[in-house]
Design a protein that fits this description.
Number of strands: 7
Low-confidence stretches: none
Mean pLDDT: 90
Helix content: 25-40%
Order of helices and strands: HEHEEEHEHHEHHE
Structural class: alpha/beta
Number of helices: 7
Strand order of the largest sheet: 3-2-1-4-5-7-6
Shape: elongated
Largest sheet: 7 strands, mixed
Length: about 220
């Protein structure tokens, strides 16, 4: 997804101010810096990550509620795989609009609510055997996913002069032969992080039943302007 955005979606960012909301360890901003060394980069997140230390990237702590003061205006604002964590999505989008240049662009990404169906089948099977509700932990992505993102954003953008200009769904195939790494990934997912030894034992056995694990992952890129 990052390569798609940098190589196919963006025009030159040299000389322009860029903001990445929910920047994490600034991985994406560092990729932009490599291709557009004259770009002016800012990243904000709710926690400080030591990996963000990089010449030419300004990292700002954001509490998730109060928008940082004196940020100025940006030509492009990125918000990647963040929106489904946000309760007041309209408030965040309004902050973006106020921080955006007149002809600026907002790029938002999210995931499909139907991602990784084979992992979901493992979870569902384990819950059936243990007589657990498979929705014991909700799916955070369902709060803002490729299946409902256009409806949510269209309502928020109504009357603002901005609209969804482009939308791309990118599908990737995941092939895993290392079962131990797959088990770690499975248990790290919020929906599957159920603290029961019998659940863990059953799901690991179901993963071991695969010779090679194959699944599919869809990410959506939305361009607002």
């Amino acid at each position: 997804m990052f390569l798609f955005i940098i190589n196919f979606l963006l025009h030159s960012l040299n000389g322009f101010r860029i903001l990445d909301v929910g920047c994490g360890d600034c991985y994406f901003l560092k990729k932009i810096k490599q291709k557009y060394p004259l770009s002016i980069l800012h990243g904000i997140d709710i926690i400080y990550n030591s990996k963000c230390k990089c010449d030419g990237i300004d990292h700002i702590i954001y509490d998730g509620t109060h928008w940082p003061k004196n940020l100025g205006k940006f030509s492009t604002i990125f918000c990647m795989n963040v929106m489904y964590h946000i309760t007041d999505k309209a408030n965040l989008i309004n902050h973006f609009l106020h921080a955006l240049d007149e002809n600026g662009t907002i790029i938002i990404t999210t995931k499909s609510n139907k991602n990784l169906q084979n992992l979901e089948r493992i979870h569902t099977k384990a819950c059936e055997l243990l007589r657990l509700d498979p929705n014991i932990k909700g799916n955070l992505v369902s709060e803002f996913c490729s299946e409902n993102s256009q409806i949510i954003l269209s309502k928020i953008l109504r009357g603002t002069g901005k609209r969804i200009k482009q939308k791309f769904n990118l599908c990737s195939t995941i092939i895993a032969s290392n079962k131990e790494e797959l088990k770690k990934y499975f248990s790290s997912c919020y929906r599957y992080s159920i603290n029961r030894s019998d659940y863990k034992r059953i799901t690991e056995k179901l993963i071991d039943d695969y010779d090679i694990f194959v699944d599919y992952h869809i990410e959506q890129v939305i361009v607002i302007g």
